[in-house]
User: What shape does this take?
Amino acid sequence: MAVPDEQPADLPSDLPECPSMQGTGLLPAELRAWMLLLAATGAVEQRLRSVVKERLDVSHDEFLVLCLLAEMPREGIRMTRIADLLGRPKTRLTYQIACLQHAGLVTRRSVHDDRRGVEVALTDKARRLLREASDQLAETVTEALASVMGPEQREAACGLLPGLTGNDRSTTTP
Assistant: This one.
């Protein structure tokens, strides 16, 4: 319940101080930061669901499969690898892939050297739809994170990656 004179938490500057920054609970900083990250992820997923349904006409879980495939080689990857990367049961993934294939967004084919293996790849239609929706999807993610993460929350989340600051890209620059 909101306190009567409290302003809405629509903007990061309006957010209450992050409990993770206080460090008064039982959890170590890494677990407090992890909980903050989970809350932020939940906010993003909540906002993305309707945009994904409207723009791509797929479920959020199917969208995650499309995003994973979009970052993989054009030839595709094995379904077992997708299940591992997304932490999904293989039976559930089989259903999601069937739905995506029915919508013309992915192809499935047997792996030539392993009859039991199945590779999945994006279709050109899926690539086009993702390109067309990417700006709105990215904006939705940014807005969702901005609505739940102010400076204190971002600082707490950085506790998950000690030594990583602002523009530190030491692992990716020569």
About this structure: Residues 28-158 form a domain with the Arc Repressor Mutant, subunit A fold (CATH 1.10.10.10). The radius of gyration is 20 Å.
